[in-house]
Design brief:
The complex is a heterodimer of chains A (about 650) and B (about 525).
Chain A: H1 5-26, H2 29-55, E1 64-74, E2 77-85, H3 87-110, H4 117-136, H5 140-158, E3 165-166, E4 169-170, H6 171-200, H7 205-211, H8 220-236, H9 245-248, H10 254-263, H11 268-275, H12 277-281, H13 284-305, H14 311-331, H15 335-362, H16 380-393, H17 400-416, H18 418-443, H19 461-476, H20 484-487, H21 495-511, H22 519-546, H23 549-557, H24 559-566, H25 571-619, H26 626-646
Antiparallel strand pairs in A: 1-2, 3-4
Chain B: H1 4-19, H2 27-50, E1 60-68, E2 73-79, H3 84-100, H4 109-128, H5 132-141, H6 143-153, H7 158-189, H8 199-205, H9 211-228, H10 237-244, H11 247-272, H12 274-300, H13 305-326, H14 329-360, H15 371-374, H16 376-389, H17 396-409, H18 418-442, H19 459-477, H20 480-502
Antiparallel strand pairs in B: 1-2
Classes of the chains: A mainly alpha (about 650), B mainly alpha (about 525).
């Protein structure tokens, strides 16, 4: 079964070709949707088959490389198109194809009637193809192909409704911004790859990672490599300072936000760090940076989420914030916990986004939660699943988000620093608060929409079923990774950690973190964070349901702070003023109109003028009078003769 | 096949000969003859490629005939891994350029087709010549038809552009002629030597020229090539020439002519003047890197699509020059591939710009907007070529760019990764200028009424672009077939440079660090 891995990648590509070339001619949404969904569901089934086979193998035989062909070779450099199936890549593959299938199914309902229906599925399948290359590649270059490929699909899908307005510009602005900001990150990734080739002579994981041990912990070169990689990760996974594209990416259709901008693509940076864990483990300085950036992003983005009124914007900032948690985990060396959160987050955030899509659909494209309210009466299925998702992300005990987030909090305390735990726990409280602000304003309280024009309705079945499946996963998904402190007593293992252990063994050996066996402390901190989460939930409901006046009062009293949050700390404006505009103006007003036109061309035309003037003078010699030529001629002969004689 | 090179080289003349007997009113026939002749050349070039042996670095299929006996100036043609793909590219793009002119050129058609075919001879000759004097003749010969193509069939300011193009290029090539003659003379001063312009003979003696003299020689050659590339700050003829040239002229200019500069650097400057090449490496690399960033930034703020593409060439060719002066196998092979890639993607971009110009008679970005809705096929193709141009992995541009950057990052000749690091910002900027343009032209709502009734691409236009797109994808996915031909020849140059630098051979299979 493992040998079939290339088909996992190939089948979505075939789906892309089929729908891309013939989709318009199908003239049938069912056909297009079926092709598109099958092209993801079949790879999911293959991946499940591989997982089953893998579980039957001893742990040291679970990593298999399947070469396909030699891709690029020049000089001593060579890289293959080859896929590495191991515990890490199969987990990612299952997430991508599993959640991906559900979102494809959902899209059949969501995109119904859109003239670009076939185009949508074409792009989605291309995305899955690129994403699977990213996670299954056996080397950094093929990962980079996937990395840029998902960026392209993100670009195409953010700008899917290319003729629509979005905020101050068009969806095209948002799409372009996403691609370019990602390219800034990719620049770092590229440099990291050059350094890797220079250091290890190859881009193949196996070759690179197996030689990592030759380097000392803290060596400069490894620090540079990992830092540059992390620059790439901040782009793709929307971390400070390159997170600015993700909130704008909400210009795309909602299933895209769920699949690409929440569940899968944006976790690529965490995957990259996890895949290179042994390198990061050897670079303590980088680890520190990763942890601090992750933590800062988790908190910072969360605070913005508190005041936003666009349902998708809130979820977008929440995604940025949750990704921050995952990096925090990696930064303190808890790679498994980071990966675990990738998985649970994929469930509940996809659920929340798809739920918001159902709401937007029902509200006739309205996204402002201030103009909603009371929707639970009209769409009970969506409401219930949405609440499950919100509880999961808020860390409600025993739901999936609880296990994964608490694992990260504990590790940040034990292997990071107490202050890290404190900030992370505070951010968790913020998360719970804004999520339940969102739930309350959307589904409960007074109906604030115009009943004459808007008639909310429950989502169709193709949309509702994926919600239910994701809700179930959001509830039970965490039980495969129950922390030892909870499961140990009743004999429940942390299966997730045990499964991934061989992948992170070299990194853990390099980190050599002390073993913490402080059950009381761990349970105590857990209790505190649960309390914080519950308080956030309660407060969110209290402020926006029980006593709505509080919110208005607070916004008025802390006007400055509110404006700051509402305007997202003015980061976009600052980037514009500090980078975008100066570069554009310098290019136009100085480089082009001065250097090119004034300096270079004028110099050239000046030379031409000098030549012309000289020629004008010399021209007078050419009088056309034969006699004067003869005089000069004879003078010349005399001169030469005189010279020869007098020598 | 005997004399395949000569047949390929002069086969376009066959078309001209036939044209002599055709009345100028028979436009369709004239076009068909031109296209037929260039297709014949393409077929011959494929035949040539079929008998090409990628395993050796030596010149192959060499033919020689005495030309000026007393001076040992000969007609020598040959191919090796550095030139074979460029020959194919030339033979591939010429028929495409001719077909692209099918309906846009009606005035003085016979002359136009003749000039295009003549141009092809000149270009092929440049890539095949194994004698410096012969090379010079082709180099100059190709200038004349291009001058007329811009000057007669160009836009409003065509005369200014044509003269600028001509003077710029002439200024450089005169110095090159002097250098060639001096080289020949130098050979004759050696014990038992004789005046010669035979490249093979000169390659053996030129590296021994003392550094100061070598530097003058290098400078004379390099100036001529740098103008052609064009390397910053010698690039200002390019935007004018492109904007004024007819579509086919731009395709050939960007697709092939610019490559002659980088080809010349690689073919002559490095092997003939290795010591001077080392001395000039910092200068050339700085100019290359400045060109990459500068070209991109200036491209970004252009208002005319064609001018934007023209400036993007300055940026792209900067990569090629950097790759050449990295003097690593990765860098040079990347550079050779990137010459082909740039020919394909920029050629395609000019074709596409020409297609929209034929419909709207403007290239101002602000005159467009929302074309994706009106012309979906055109938009899709434009986007694919754009992605190739900005180096998206999986398409051709990435492979070349990556190898160039990889080679120059770890090059011992450049000595520092800084060049490559700065050059790599081009990856960001190319996305900025191309995608910004794409957004303004294709996305958003249709704002100009003239654009509402635009017709999408015709079958002929699609047929013209598809072969180019095929190669764009092919090279991106499976570049081996396009990298292998240049491997042996590149290895030889790199080995030679190593020997010149250290006095010893580099052991096989080690990366330059």
């Amino acid at each position: 079964m493992i040998g079939y891995a290339p088909y996992i990648v190939l089948i979505p590509f075939l789906g892309f070709l089929l729908n891309g070339l013939l989709g318009r001619k199908f003239r049938s949404e069912t056909a297009v949707g079926a092709v598109g969904t099958a092209a993801v569901a079949i790879p999911f089934l293959i991946a499940v088959g591989i997982l089953v086979e893998m579980l039957g193998l001893p742990a040291d035989q679970r990593s298999v490389t399947v070469p396909v062909f030699q891709w690029i070779a020049a000089g001593s450099f060579s890289v293959d198109a080859a896929y590495q199936v191991d515990q890490l890549s199969i987990v990612m593959t299952l997430i991508v194809t599993g959640v991906g299938s559900l979102i494809h199914l959902y899209s059949i309902g969501y995109m119904h009637g859109d003239p670009g229906f076939w185009r949508f599925f074409t792009y989605l399948n291309l995305f899955i193809f690129a994403m699977l290359n990213l996670v299954l590649a056996d080397n950094y270059l093929l990962m980079f192909l996937g990395w840029e490929g998902v960026g392209l699909c993100s670009y195409l899908l953010i700008g899917f409704w290319y003729d629509r307005k979005f905020e101050k510009g068009t969806t095209g602005d948002a799409a372009k911004k996403a691609f370019i900001v990602n390219r800034i990150g990719d620049f770092g990734f590229l440099l990291a790859m050059f350094l890797i080739v220079g250091t290890f002579g190859s881009l193949k994981y196996e070759t690179v990672l197996s030689q990592a041990g030759l380097f000392e912990r803290g060596s400069d070169i490894i620090t540079w490599i990992t830092l540059l990689m992390f620059v790439g990760a901040t782009g793709k996974s929307a971390q400070i300072p390159l997170y600015v594209w993700l909130p704008d990416a909400m210009a795309g259709p909602t299933p895209v936000s769920a699949l690409i901008h929440a569940a899968t693509m944006v976790t690529a940076g965490i995957y990259m760090v996890a895949r290179s864990s042994v390198l990061f483990a050897l670079a303590p300085a980088t680890m520190e940076v990763v942890a601090v950036i992750g933590l800062a992003t988790a908190f910072f983005a969360g605070t913005i989420g508190i005041v936003q009124n666009d349902i998708k914007k809130v979820l977008a900032y929440s995604t940025v914030s949750q990704l921050g948690y995952m990096f925090l985990a990696c930064g303190v060396g808890a790679f498994t916990a980071g990966l675990f959160h990738v998985m649970t987050h994929a469930f509940f955030k996809a659920l929340l986004f798809l739920g918001s899509g159902a709401v937007i659909h029902a509200m006739h494209e309205e996204q402002d939660i201030q103009k909603m309210g009371g929707l639970k009466k009209y769409m009970p299925g969506t409401y219930k699943t949405f609440v499950v998702g919100a509880l999961a992300i808020a860390g409600f005990p025993l739901l999936s988000g609880f296990f994964s987030k608490d694992e990260i909090l504990w590790k940040s305390f034990a292997d990071g620093a107490p202050w890290m735990w404190f900030v992370a726990a505070a951010a968790a409280g913020v998360t719970a608060f804004y999520m339940f602000r969102l739930v309350t304003l959307t589904f409960e309280g007074k109906e604030r929409f115009d009943h004459h024009h808007v008639h909310p309705h429950e989502a169709p079945k193709t949309m509702l079923y994926p919600l239910i499946v994701l809700a179930v996963l959001s509830v039970i998904g965490g039980f495969i990774g129950v922390p030892h402190v909870l499961g140990g007593a009743v004999g429940v293992h942390n299966y997730f950690e045990e499964f991934l252990a061989p992948v992170f063994a070299p990194a853990n050996a390099a980190l050599n973190l002390p073993y913490h066996d402080d059950t009381a402390l761990e349970l105590g901190l857990m209790a505190v964070s649960v309390a914080v989460g519950l308080a956030g939930i309660w407060f969110g409901r209290y402020v926006y349901l029980t006593k709505p006046s509080i919110a208005a009062d607070a916004a008025a009293r802390f006007g400055g702070l509110h404006r700051l949050l509402w305007n997202k700390y003015f980061v976009d404006e600052a980037y514009d003023a500090a980078v975008v505009e100066p570069v554009r103006k310098t290019s136009e007003r100085f480089l082009w109109k001065v250097v090119d036109v004034r300096i270079i061309d004028d110099a050239l035309n000046g030379t031409a003028r000098i030549v012309e003037m000289t020629a004008n003078i010399l021209r007078r010699i050419q009088t056309g009078v034969v006699q004067s030529y003869a005089v000069v001629f004879i003078a010349g002969i005399l001169f030469v003769l005189g010279y020869l004689i007098g020598r | 096949m005997q004399n395949i090179l000569t047949y390929t080289l002069f086969s376009p003349l066959l078309g001209i000969a036939v044209l002599l007997f055709i009345g100028r009113a028979k436009q369709t026939l004239i076009k068909s003859v031109g296209i037929g002749a260039s297709l014949l050349t393409f077929a011959l070039s494929l035949l040539l490629y079929a008998s090409f042996d990628a395993g050796t670095a030596a010149m192959q299929m060499t033919e020689r005939a005495v030309w000026i006996a007393g001076l040992d100036i000969s007609y020598i043609v040959g191919v090796d891994g550095l030139s074979v793909l460029l020959i194919l590219l030339t033979a591939f793009l010429t028929p495409i350029a001719l077909i692209a002119s099918w309906s846009s050129i009606t005035d003085r058609l016979k002359e136009y087709v003749s000039f295009m075919l003549l141009l092809e001879v000149g270009m092929l000759g440049v890539f095949m010549a194994g004698d410096l004097f012969l090379f010079y003749v082709f180099w100059e010969a190709m200038l004349i038809p291009m001058y007329f193509i811009i000057g007669i069939w160009g836009g409003k300011e065509r005369i200014y552009a044509a003269v600028k193009f001509f003077l710029y290029t002439m200024a450089g090539s005169l110095l090159m002629l002097i250098a060639i003659l001096w080289l020949g003379y130098y050979a004759s001063t050696l014990p038992g030597g004789q005046f010669t312009t035979d490249l093979a003979k000169l390659s053996a003696v030129a590296p021994g020229i003392p550094l100061t003299l070598q530097s003058w020689m290098f400078a004379a050659f390099a100036l001529s090539f740098a103008i052609k590339v064009p390397l910053f700050p010698l690039h200002t003829w390019l935007p004018d020439a492109h904007v004024q040239a007819p579509t086919a002229g731009s395709v050939i200019l960007a697709g092939v002519l610019l490559k002659m500069g980088t080809y010349g650097l690689l073919r002559f400057c490095l092997p003939l003047f290795p010591q001077a090449s080392f001395a000039f490496t910092p200068l050339m690399s700085v100019l290359a890197v400045v060109g990459i960033v500068y070209g991109a930034l200036v491209a970004m703020v252009q208002t005319d699509v064609k001018k934007l593409v023209a400036y993007s060439s300055v940026s792209h060719l900067g990569f090629v020059v950097l790759g050449i002066f990295s003097m690593t196998e990765e860098g040079i092979q990347g550079a050779v591939l990137q010459m082909i890639n740039h020919g394909l993607s920029t050629g395609a971009l000019f074709l596409l710009v020409g297609m929209i110009y034929d419909r709207r008679h403007t290239r101002e970005i602000s005159q467009f907007g929302g074309l994706a809705k009106v012309m979906p096929v055109f938009s899709t193709m434009f986007l694919i070529v754009t992605l190739s141009s900005i180096g998206l992995p999986g398409l051709n541009g990435f492979v070349g760019e990556f190898l160039i950057l990889l080679g120059s990052f770890n090059s011992m000749f450049l000595g520092t990764p800084v060049y490559a690091a700065v050059a790599a910002t081009g990856v960001i900027f190319s996305a900025v200028y191309m995608l910004w343009m794409v957004q303004r032209v294709f996305f958003g709502a249709v704002t100009h009424d003239e654009n509402r009734s635009l017709t999408d691409l015709t079958k002929r236009e699609i047929g013209l672009l598809l072969p180019v797109l095929l190669f764009i994808v092919w090279i991106g996915v499976a570049p081996s077939a396009f990298l292998k031909p240049s491997a042996a020849a590149t290895k030889q140059i790199v080995t030679q440079m190593h020997q010149a630098k250290t006095g010893t051979a580099v052991p096989a299979g080690t990366t330059a660090q």
